[in-house]
Amino acid sequence: MQAATGQDTVLLDPVVAPRIAVTRLLAGVLQGVLLFWLYSAAQNKAWPATVPSLLAPLMLCCMLLPVLLVSSLGHMSIKRIALWMLGAGTVLTLLALHDVARGAEHVIWGNYKPGAPLRVISAQLFGFCVVGLYVAHALVLASAQDQLRVARYPTYFEIAWKLGIQLLFSLLFVAVLCLVFWLGGQLFLLIRLAFLKNLLAQPWFVIPVLCFAFSFAMHITDVRPSIVRGIRTLLLVLLSWLLPIAAVLVASFLLTLPFIGFERLWATRHAASVLLGMAGVLVVLINAAFQNGEVGMGVARGVRLGTRLACLLLPWLVGIAIYALTLRVMSHGWSAERLVACACLLIAACYAVGYAWAASKYGNWLHLIANVNVATAFVGLAVLCALFTPLADPARLSVASQMARLESGKVGADRFDFEYLRFEGAKYGQAALEELKARRTGPEAAIIQARAQAMLLRENRLDETGALSDISINLTVRPDGARLPESFLSQDWSQVTPGWRLPACLKRAGQQCDAYLLDFDGDGKDEVLLISNDPRAVSVLLAEKEGGGWYARGQVPANILRCKPLREKLQAGQFQLVPPQVRELEVDGLRVPMSLYNPEEPDCPEQ
Fold first, then answer.
1. Does residue 152 fall inside a structural domain?
2. Quick one: 109 and 209 in the same domain?
3. Predicted local distance difference test score (pLDDT) of residue 180
4. What are phi and psi of 333, to 5 degrees?
5. Is 66 helix (H, G, I), strand (E, B) or coil?
6. CA quadruple 295, 296, 297, 301: dihedral, nearest 10
7. Are residues 197 and 228 in the same domain?
8. How many whole angstroms separate alpha carbon 297 and alpha carbon 83?
9. Coil, strand or helix: which one is 591?
10. Does 416 reside within a domain?
C-alpha cells in the first residue's frame, strides 16, 4: 500500500489496514469497560471483588493482555495470537493466584480502612509482570516474524527496541492527554462551567478513555515504523557516546578501591544496589553501541574501545556487588529485598561473564554479545517466574532465614525483627509468629512469646493502640540486671507530648529499644535513655517530673547512633558519663545552656 506525499513515496506497514485499526481500538474500549467493572466491584465490595482468587487474575489479565493483543495484531496470525494470549493468560492467572494464596495484603483500588485492606495484586508482581511480558512478547514477535523457534538477533533487536519506544511514547501520549483534559477543565471553570471537571472525576469516563487512548497511541506508533526506527537510531547514537565516559568512571573507581580500602564501601550499606545499578547502565550502553550486531567497523573508534573496556570491567563490578550482598546476608540474613537483589545479580552475572567472553575474542565486533543477550533473556524469564511462585518466593525464603538465625542464636530476641514477619513475611511470616507465640521452652522463650503475641494483634504498621499493653516486651534494659521504674512501665505514653519525639518502641509492638538507666543530671535519680534498634536509630532521654509522669528531655544525634562499633560498645557498657566541656550561663537565677558549633563530628571507628 503506497501513499504519495508530493516528493517521495512512503511504503506503509500492512498494520494500517482498517480492520486491524478498528480491532485495536475496540480492544482498548473493551479493556476500559472491563477495568471499570472491576473497579466498581472493588469499590462496592461486590462480586467478583468478594472472591480474591477471582479478582486478582481478572485484574492482572485485564490490565496486561489487551496490550499484548494490540501489539500482536497485524504481526502474527490469528492462531499464533490465540495461543500466545492463552499462554500469557495462564501464566498471569497462576502468578496472581499464588500472590493471593501467600496472603500478602495490598491496596490497589477502594477506600483503605485500617484492618480491612483490599487484597488484589502486589505492586511488585505487577511491575515484574510488565517487565517479563515485555521480554517474552519481544521473543514471541521475533519468532513469528522469522518463522523460527529462535529468531535472528537483528530481528530481536528491531522488535525489542521498537516495542520499548512504542510503550514509552504511548504512556507519554496518555499523560499529555490527561494534562490537556485538566487544562480544558480549568478553562471552563474560568467561566464557571464545571461540567468537564466533574466529568474527569467520573471513573466510568476516565478509565475507558485512558485505555482507548493507550491503544490508539500503540496503533499510531505502529503505523509508521520508519519514524520509530529513526527515533531509536538517534537515541542509540547518543547513548553510545556515553559509554566511554561510563567506562572511564568505572575503571577509575575500581583502580581507586585498593588504595582507599573496601571498608568505606561496606559502610554505606547500600553498595550492592549502587553497583548493580551501574552494571545495569553499562549493559544498556553496551547494547546501544552494539545495536543489531551488524554495524561493525561503522562505529567510531572511541565507542568501540569504550565498549570493549566496559565489557571487561563488568565482571569486576558485578563481582564486588555479589561480595557486598554476601556480607550483608552473612551479617543480617536474607530479606525479600536481598533475595530480589540476588536474582538481579544472577542475571547481571550472566551478562558480565558473557560480555567479558565476547570482549576477549579480539578481531571481531563482539558478535558473541548477540548470543549472550538471547540466552540471558530466557534466564531472566525463568528467574522472574521463580520469584513469584513457591519455588523461590522471597517471603518464604526470607522468613526461613530469619527464623534459622533466631534458632541458632545468631540474633537475640532484642534484635529479632518481629515486625518484618508480620508485615513482609506474608503467610509464612504469620505462621512463624504463631509458632513463636506458642513457644514455651528455650532461651528468652517468655520474651519471644510475648513479642510475637503482641505483634499478631497489630492490624497495620501504624497501629499504636490496643496492641501494646506492656512496653517492657519491647525494651532490653542495660546494664544487665537493672529494672525500669514502675512509674515508667505504667506511664501512658499516648499522653506524652510531643509524641513525635518518642521512639516507636513506646507505641508499637515489634519495635525494640535498648533502655539505659543512668543518672545524667547527678540528682541521684536515674533517667532512661532509649535507643531504638531501628536502622534510623532514633533516641530520647526520658526523665520523671517532680509531681509524677515522664517527659522527653533530650536525645543523642542520630548519625552517631548509626555507627555500629559505637552501638556495640554502648551495649557492652564501655562508656562513662562525663561533665560537659562548656559550662552553662546563669543570669538572675536562670540557667542558659550553650549550644556548641561542632562542624567536626566524631568519625565512626573502623568496622
1. yes
2. yes
3. 97
4. 80, 180
5. helix
6. 90
7. yes
8. 41
9. strand
10. no
Q: In whole angstroms, give the CA distance from residue 3 to residue 173.
A: 25
Range of the domain at 518: 474-607
Q: pLDDT over 70 for what percent of the chain?
A: 91
Which residues, 6 or more positions from 378, have their beta carbon under 8 angstroms from its beta carbon? 139
Q: Helical H runs in 361-413?
A: 369-387, 394-408
In whole angstroms, give the CA distance from residue 306 to residue 290: 11
604 with 537, same domain: the answer is yes
Question: Is 334 in contact with 403 (CB distance < 8 Å)?
Answer: no
Count of the separate structural domains present in the chain:
3
| C-alpha cell at position 193 | 462551567
Q: How is residue 236 written as a grid cell?
A: 542509540
DSSP assignment of 418-464 equals HHHHHHHSHHHHHHHHHHHHT--SSTTHHHHHHHHHHHHH--STT--
Q: Are strands 527-532 and 539-544 parallel, antiparallel or unpaired?
A: antiparallel
For residue range 164-189, what is the model confidence (pLDDT) as tens digits? 999 999 999 999 999 999 999 999 99
pTM of the complete model: 0.81
Q: Which value, in Å, is the radius of gyration of the alpha carbons in the chain?
A: 30
Q: Measuring CA to CA, how many Å separate 245 from each of 208, 239, 242?
A: 45, 11, 5
Residues 487-496 have pLDDT tens digits of 998 888 877 7
Residue 403 placed within a domain: no
Residue 464 grid cell = 499504636
